[in-house]
Amino acid sequence: MMEKTNRAEKIDAGHMRQEGEGLVNEFFQLSTGNPVQFLEDSLKNTPKDQQLYLKREILAALVSHIVIPAPHGNGKELELVGKALSLLIKDSRFPEFYRQFIRISTQYFEEIAHCEADIRDQYTDRLREKEEKLSHQSGRPVRVDLSTDPEFADIYNKKINSIREDYESIAEQVREQSLLLFPT
Question: pTM score, two decimals?
Answer without folding.
Answer: 0.76
